[in-house]
Write a sequence for this structure.
């Protein structure tokens, strides 16, 4: 009976997470792609899209030593935490090992979430204060920022999504053991 209760909680949390993701995606228009906390126009080719993404991150990371350290620390935690957790989880499931061995992968995933939020907020605030927005019109900009109200609502939705993901991991871990 308790297993059914936990399964229903998991399903409810997954449905809630999908609804929050739909709210987050509703901020993106048809001709835009979301990149961290910025919006890039889709009308450019994939090669130009990659260049714009690289320029956004490169300019932020090389603005100051503090930004460089913050960027590389957060980016390494995000990349290695997600990849390491995924590989470890694949090994545990692929070799049919005890599910208790999957706890390190859950810890890796839990470390990724706050760093993702930090990096997107730092990129938003960095680019918001740049003079690029006064030099060119909005039509000439390679990427756009959400307004302050939308940014606050997006952060609220991301926090709701991350909280539901933490609950899914916690309930799933309890359910598995």
């Amino acid at each position: 009976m308790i297993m059914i209760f936990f399964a229903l909680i998991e399903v409810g949390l997954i449905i809630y997470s999908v609804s929050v993701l739909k709210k987050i995606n509703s901020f993106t228009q048809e001709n835009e792609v979301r990149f961290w906390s910025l919006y890039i126009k889709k009308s450019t080719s994939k090669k130009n899209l990659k260049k714009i993404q690289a320029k956004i991150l490169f300019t932020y990371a090389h603005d100051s030593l503090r930004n460089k350290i913050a960027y590389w620390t957060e980016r390494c935690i995000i990349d290695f935490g997600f990849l390491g957790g995924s590989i470890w989880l694949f090994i545990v499931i692929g070799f049919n090992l005890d599910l208790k061995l999957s706890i390190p992968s859950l810890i890796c995933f839990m470390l990724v979430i706050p760093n993702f939020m930090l990096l997107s907020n730092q990129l938003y605030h960095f680019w918001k204060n740049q003079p690029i927005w006064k030099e060119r019109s909005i039509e000439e900009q390679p990427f756009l920022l959400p307004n302050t109200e939308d940014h606050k609502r997006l952060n609220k939705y991301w926090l709701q999504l991350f909280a539901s993901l933490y609950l899914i991991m916690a309930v799933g871990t309890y359910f598995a053991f």
